[in-house]
């Protein structure tokens, strides 16, 4: 793979050791390495450091401050009082699934007349559609609440009004650049007020804030009942899952809700959560953002990708352990099928990309499609292709004269803006800077691909094609003791905006032969040493550098340290991010 080999070389951006780290370490009673990590994250004083290391739920922004929430709460409260039917309309990804689960849990607890609707990914696509709106209205709904969608639903919003439904939009996606908004009795969206402190919120966080505000409205000045309090605690789990799965920046209150939700998930007695964790083989594990992103979220997403996402909501909201067990097992099997399909499509896509010459250095984008690619899986494959070729990628499934795609980008290139600039022939599109969805006539795909490539060429500097690796510090292997690595984990949850710390150690050498591992031998286990200590390393998808490691006496490694308990005892393991060989 021509470009894959070229793009594996990364530019290491190493943060210099800060002289103030020693002082910050003393005030926080921590190590200089931890203090350096805090400084790298823009935290320079002890008060900020304590808040970061010990996030508190009471530091969340009051729900009533979320733009649009007061009007939404007033309409919901009136609907509850008058016995009107409310329908929640959500998206089919984890963020949408958890958003629906939050409001469903609240309405069920309150005895509200409600239902929820999630469109079928393949048959209906993303967002609100006219047929669904008509069906919901026919079911006597008078108030419809969107979650994780709706901010660009102009035509369907007018249809809801025409059919006599009051529409409440809760969303976090970017509105149209024109500034126009759909007709609704309330729009709950962090971006509606530029002064709102947390502009980047997941759809699940927006739904959580709305549910919290409804609780505050209904309880009045009195104490929150134990049942509603338990509901809010459980809802932090869903908000955390939606935030992490949707790759929202884990800063400010996003980090707080994720941190608290991850703590709550460990003690959760919700049947859906316990069975989901068991299906992922994570029982007795301390669940962190990695487990959410790579184990739990894929199982939930399998519902919408391979079947219908409604099943995932049934899992999360079920009160029956038996029902939850049955659904979790089914979704686990669906996820295995998804993984097999993903590998097949990835192989076919890479072959098609090479045949079309889209992997050549003069290309700035990848836009490609096939009638054989499952639309529920193209988004995952597009993400993998973006990592492989390091360029914006749009992968289409072509069926019945339409082409439906998932788009993924790299840091620094706003793919939604690019799509909007090329939207003349698009049927629909939406998303944000790093990920989007596109639908067009299959006959227009070739013209769109050419237009998108021209836009990418005209709006991207060559330096953006350099894959960069931010390294927090250069250190010796001896510095990464078990206590220190445990301290490093206290900076989590890790994700976008609070990346897992990466360190580099220079001039290490092998102390034993590398070993290929994994079902297909695609991963690599190595043991290395420097002048201070030895360390075991795992390099995911790095099996192809085995020969080069053996050929070089010394090399540099970049990695994230973690505590490994696989062999029954605690050991430090380095998860390799890159290996740099002498020139």
Verbal overview:
The chain is an alpha/beta fold. It has three domains: 2-54 and 468-580, OB fold (Dihydrolipoamide Acetyltransferase, E2P), CATH 2.40.50; 59-268, inorganic pyrophosphatase (n-terminal core), CATH 3.90.1640.30; 356-465, Diaminopimelate Epimerase, Chain A, domain 1 (Roll). The chain contains 20 helices and 19 strands. The strands form four sheets. It has a five-stranded parallel β-sheet, sandwiched between helices. Helix 16 (378-389) links the parallel strand 7 and strand 8. Helix 9 packs antiparallel against helix 10 (226-245), helix 12 packs across helix 14 (310-317) and helix 14 runs antiparallel to helix 15 (321-355).
What brief labels describe this structure?
583 residues; Diaminopimelate Epimerase, Chain A, domain 1; disordered N terminus; 20 helices; 43% helix; 3 domains; 19 strands; inorganic pyrophosphatase (n-terminal core); alpha/beta; five-stranded mixed β-sheet
Rg (CA only)? 25 Å
Largest sheet: 5 strands, parallel
From the 3D structure, determine the CATH topology of the largest domain.
Answer: inorganic pyrophosphatase (n-terminal core)
Distance between the termini: 22 Å
Enumerate the spans where pLDDT stays under 50 for 5 or more consecutive residues: 1-8
SS-based class: alpha/beta
Q: What percentage of amino acids are in beta strands?
A: 15-25%
């Amino acid at each position: 793979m021509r470009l894959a080999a070229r793009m594996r070389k990364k530019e290491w951006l190493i943060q210099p050791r800060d002289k103030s780290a020693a002082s910050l370490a003393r005030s926080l009673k921590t190590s200089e390495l931890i203090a350096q990590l805090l400084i790298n994250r823009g935290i320079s004083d002890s008060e900020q450091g304590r808040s970061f290391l010990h996030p508190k739920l009471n530091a969340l922004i009051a729900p009533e401050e979320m733009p649009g929430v007061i009007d939404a709460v007033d309409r919901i409260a009136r609907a509850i009082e008058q016995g009107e039917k409310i329908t929640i309309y959500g998206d089919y990804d984890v963020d949408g699934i958890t958003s629906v689960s939050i409001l469903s849990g609240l309405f069920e607890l309150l005895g509200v007349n409600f239902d929820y609707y999630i469109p079928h990914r393949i048959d209906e696509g993303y967002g609100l559609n006219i047929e669904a709106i008509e069906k919901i209205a026919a079911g006597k709904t008078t108030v419809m609440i969107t979650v994780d969608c709706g901010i660009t639903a102009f035509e369907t919003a007018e249809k809801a009004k025409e059919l006599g439904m009051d529409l409440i939009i809760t969303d976090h996606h970017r509105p149209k650049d024109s500034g126009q908004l759909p007709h609704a009795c309330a729009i709950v969206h962090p971006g509606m007020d530029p002064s709102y402190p947390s502009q980047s919120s997941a759809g699940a966080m927006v739904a959580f804030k709305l549910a919290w505000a409804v609780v505050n409205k209904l309880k009045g000045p009195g104490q929150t009942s134990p049942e509603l309090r338990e509901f809010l605690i459980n809802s932090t789990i869903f908000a955390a899952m939606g935030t992490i799965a949707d790759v929202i920046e884990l800063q400010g209150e996003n980090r707080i809700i994720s941190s608290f939700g991850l703590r709550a998930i460990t003690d959760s007695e919700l049947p859906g959560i316990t069975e989901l964790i068991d299906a992922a083989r994570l029982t007795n594990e301390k669940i962190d953002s990695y487990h959410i992103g790579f184990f739990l979220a894929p199982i939930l997403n399998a519902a919408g990708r391979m079947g219908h996402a409604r099943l995932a909501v049934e899992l999360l909201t079920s009160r029956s352990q038996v029902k939850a067990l049955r659904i979790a097992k089914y979704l686990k099997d669906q996820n295995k099928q998804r993984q097999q399909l993903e590998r097949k499509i990835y192989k076919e896509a890479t072959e098609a990309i090479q045949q079309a010459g889209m992997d050549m250095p003069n290309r700035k984008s990848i836009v490609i499609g096939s009638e054989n690619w499952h639309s529920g899986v193209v988004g995952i494959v597009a993400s993998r292709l973006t990592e492989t070729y390091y360029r914006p990628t749009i992968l289409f499934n072509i069926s019945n004269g339409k082409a439906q795609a998932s788009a993924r980008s790299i840091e620094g290139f706003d793919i939604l803006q690019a799509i909007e600039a090329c939207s003349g022939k698009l049927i629909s599109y939406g998303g944000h800077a790093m990920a989007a969805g596109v639908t067009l006539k299959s006959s227009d795909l070739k013209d769109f691909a050419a237009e998108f490539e021209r836009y990418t060429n005209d709006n991207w500097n060559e330096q953006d094609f350099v894959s960069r690796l931010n390294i927090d510090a250069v250190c010796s292997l001896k510095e990464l003791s078990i206590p220190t690595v445990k301290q490093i984990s206290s900076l989590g949850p890790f994700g976008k905006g609070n990346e897992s710390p990466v360190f580099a150690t220079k001039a290490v050498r092998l102390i034993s032969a590398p070993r290929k591992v994994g079902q297909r031998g695609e991963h690599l286990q190595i043991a290395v040493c420097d002048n201070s200590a030895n360390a075991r390393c795992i390099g995911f998808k790095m099996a192809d550098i085995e020969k080069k490691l053996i050929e070089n006496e010394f090399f540099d490694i970049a990695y994230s340290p973690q505590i490994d308990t696989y062999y029954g005892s605690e050991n430090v393991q380095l998860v390799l991010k890159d290996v740099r060989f002498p020139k």
